[in-house]
Each structure stands twice: as C-alpha cells, then as structure tokens.
Amino acid sequence: MYLKTLTLRGFKSFASATTLRFEPGITAVVGPNGSGKSNVVDALAWVMGEHSAKSLRGGKMEDVIFAGTSSRPPLGRAEVTLTIDNTDGALPIDYTEVTISRLMFRSGQSEYAINGDTCRLLDIQELLSDSGIGREMHVIVGQGQLDQVLHAGPEERRAFIEEAAGVLKHRKRKEKALRKLDAMQANLTRVQDLVTELRRQLKPLGRQAEIARKAAVIQADLRDARLRLLADDVVTLRDTLQREEADEAAVQARRTQVEGELAEGQRREAELEAAENEAQPRLKAAQETFYRLSALRERLRGVESLAAERQRHAADAAAIERRGRDPEDLEREAAEVREQERVLAEELDEARDRLAAAVEIRGEAEDALATEERRLAA
Q: Rounded to two decimals, what is the model's pTM?
C-alpha cells in the first residue's frame, strides 16, 4: 500500500487544481521557503480528518480555503482528494484503489467521500485506523513536532509509542465501548426506574384495563343494539316503501283509468256536440213548424169562430129569408167549409206529431248534454 496521487483544489496556496503523483519508495518535495511544501503535508492531514486549525498552522478552519491574491479572487471552497493504492489489501475494502476526498465551504460545512460515495468522518477514521495511518497515528510529523517528541516526558512518550504501535485504535474502541457501557448503564437504570414505576401503576392500570374491557363489551352491545334497531328501521321502511309503491301503482292505475274515462267523456262530449250541431237545424225547423202550427191553430180558431158566427147568422138568415138563397148552395158551401176544416185538422194533427217528436229529440239531447257536462266536471 502506498499513496498514489494527491489532488488539491482551493486548499491554502493551491488555488488551481494541482495533482501530485507518488511512486513506491521515497518521494521528496523540495522548493524554496513559502512555495507550499508544508501545505502538502497539511493537505494530507486535513483529508484524513484533521479538525485542529492549530495543527494546520491556522487560526480557524476556514483558513485552509484559498484567501485570494492581488491577481486572483478568493475561492468559496477547498477540496483535497487522496488516492491510495490498495493492491495488497491493507485497507479493509474491496477496491484496489481507494479515493478519499474532503470538501469544505466557507460556511464551515464539510463533506467526506470514499470512492465518490458520501460518508462520515468516522467511516474514514475506521478505514484508516486498521492500516496504521491517520491523522493521529504520527505517520505525519510536522514542523515542531519532532522537538515536542524529544522533550516529552515518560507518560507522553509512552502515548506516542502506543499510538505509533497501533494501540490508538484499540484505545479509541475501548473508550467508545466504555461510553456505550456507561450509556447502557444509564439506560438500564432508567429502565429499572420505569419498571418500578410501571409495577407501581400496574394495579390501577389493571383496574383501568378491566373497566376498558367492560366498556368495550358495553360499546359492542350498544353497537349491536343500534345495528338491530337500524335493521328493524330498514325493514319497516322497506315495508312502508313497498306499500307506498303499491299505493302509487294503484293511484297510477286509477289515474290511467280516470284519464281514459276523461278521454272517453271528451270523445262523447265531442260526439254530443256534433249531434247537437246536427240537431240544431232540425230543432230550428221544429221551432219554426211549432210557430207556424201555432199561427195555423190561431187561424183555425178564428176560422172556426167565423164559421160558427156565419152558421148562426146563416140560420138566422134562413129563418128570416127562406126565399133569399138556395138550400143546395148553402149545403154545398157548408160541405166546402167542413172539407176545409177537415184538411186543416189533418194538418194540425200532423204538425202536432212533428212537434212532439222534435220536443222529445230536444229533451233527449239536453239530458245527454247535461249528463256529459256533469261527468266532465267530475
């Protein structure tokens, strides 16, 4: 396993994208003071998760972003990508090349990625701790750190030796396990308190549960009773609906029948009106005949009175003037008068018969008209 490439973009003095390629063995980076040699070491520590701005020779973490020059404006983010050759499988990951990248914005937000997949800082630390490298493994010795190691006390030297020997990851895991145990103990204590409290509330809760069961039974009975009442209402309403439908059918039938009778009555009325219109000329003729016969009867009465008066005068004159007229002429005149009287009597009888027939027809027509008017009104 060895470092293969290191790409810096916007990190400290590396404004443009700069890629450093390494080969197996020893690689030396040389240059004058201020050319950015230390920035390469800082980039390695930063991409592996360094969070101390002091270790990166800065006042705050945002100082790692290119601050700009007189000819170039400042950038808004810094990005470092480290590629490690994992052909020997030193890193516990199924890739022959492992790319670790870190991106930071001026807002202070950082993003980590392994082979392009977003991850956490803890994932990167776990991955690198098993290989013996990392920001706290003392594989990176910066300026002033060697003097710190030489002047360190026994305790500090022991810590350096343990970290260099790979004990740091186990110590971190131990601390993490101890923190988990402490949290577990706190949770256990809390659970015991909860169990004690629940046991204390168990009897009231049991009584409440019994009441709740009874209430559930009562609610079920109430629901069943409501359902039975609703079912009974449905049956009653259905029966009522059937009766109403039967009554409606009967009313419809009666209506149809009445409409038929009405149509028949209207047809009969039209027929009677037509018959009446047809009978009007006969009625008018009968009335004229009646008036004519009445006039004829008055004439006959006048003739009869005149004949009686003439007969009386004739009798008186015959008694006085027997020698004045011939008896045969008188008899012949009397026969003519009687013949006229007979003809007039026959005409009078015939006119009376026609008048009676016309009156009867008129009465029947008026009765039929009155009956149809009553039916139509009904």
A: 0.45
